[in-house]
Amino acid sequence: MFHTKDIGNSSFLVTGGAGFIGSHITEYLLKNGAGKVRVLDNLATGFQKNIDLFVGYDNFEFVEGDIRDAEICKKACEGIDYVSHQAALGSVPRSINDPITSNNVNVSGFVNMLTAAKDAGVKTFVYASSSSVYGDEPNLPKTEDRVGNPLSPYAVTKKTNELYAKVFADLYSIKLMGFRYFNVFGPRQDPDGPYAAVIPLFVSGILNNKEVFINGDGEQTRDFTFVDNAVQANVRGMLAENESAFNKVYNVAVGENYSVNYLYNEIRDMLGVEHEATYREPRAGDVRNSLADISLAKEHLGYEPTKKFAEGLQQTVEFFKEIYG
Predict the structure, then answer these.
(1) How many helices (H) and strands (E) does the chain have?
(2) Nearest to 132 by CA among 151, 109, 112, 104
(3) Distance between CA atoms of residues 273 and 209, nearest Å
């Protein structure tokens, strides 16, 4: 377990709880005795099948709605102690293709949620930021106090979230913290659609004997982070009692990085299939290398990655083998 505090009398709201990371946070809370868990999701990028996993819990409630609707946000925050805000439009390419919608969801929706949480007297509000905020800052590992210029509209929206969070914390004394996720992966990550993440794309492509693409030369590196580690950060953040932990942003990662070529070869070996990838042009807005310093989260939240790359990848591959094998 990622907490020791009794949460049997506590109520939680997970926005984006039908999505990848949000559904894992929801599952953890329900399985570990939360008094109430409410999910707010418009099912635009989340899935009803993830909500269906939770309908057997008496303490679970699903509100179908959009964070761009201030009244829905207000309704969702009523009677809530802790908020884990995961709802967003992810994907750098999506934001490049449609910056207006990304901004409306990720920025206006975020301000709606902050305002609703403030008005409802929520105890703690944690939210998903992104490693994309580091932009063109070249130094490795990435430390929270050193960011560069954003390279995509998506990165701008996440940096804006951090700025709004600081202002709300300063003006309204809300306990807030943000998590800069580094390439989170795991079961339930969507392998379909134009903005699917790389690991499910690789696995489903190999298993279905489809062409698999690697952007650029494949030597770009990422701090691949198994989803359990993101869940841990959110739980520790919501239940934190250390005053020094609040009103900060934290890297959520493992502190190790691997190239995309290495990732692809590991997946291929785990599947026992010879399948050559097709290389294509680098993707606009992508950073070349990514590696996190996680010492701040360790210090203030007691965060410690419980599953590293190899173990997490094996579990993820097994999940998708069940679907596509």
Answers:
(1) 12, 13
(2) 151
(3) 10
Q: What is the pTM of this model?
A: 0.95
**Structural domains of the chain sorted by starting position, each given as residue range(s) with its CATH number in brackets:** 11-182+226-254 (3.40.50.720)
- Other Cβ atoms closer than 10 A to 71: 10
Sign of torsion over alpha carbons 177, 8, 17, 123: negative
Location of structure tokens 């009677």: 79
Instruction: Confirm whether 154 is a catalytic residue.
Output: yes
Q: What is the pLDDT of residues 109-118, one digit of tens each?
A: 999 999 999 9
Look up residue 307 and give its two tokens.
Answer: 């599953």
What pLDDT, in 10s, does the model give residues 8-57? 999 999 999 999 999 999 999 999 999 999 999 999 999 999 999 999 99
71: helix, strand or coil:
helix
Q: Express each pLDDT in 219-269 by its tens digit.
A: 999 999 999 999 999 999 999 999 999 999 999 999 999 999 999 999 999
Tokens 């969801």 belong to residue: 105
CB-CB contact of 168 with 114 (8 Å): yes
- Check 154, 250, 264, 303 and give the catalytic one: 154
Tokens 């998708």 appear where? 320
CA distances for 2 relative to 63, 225, 244, 305, angstroms: 26, 16, 19, 11
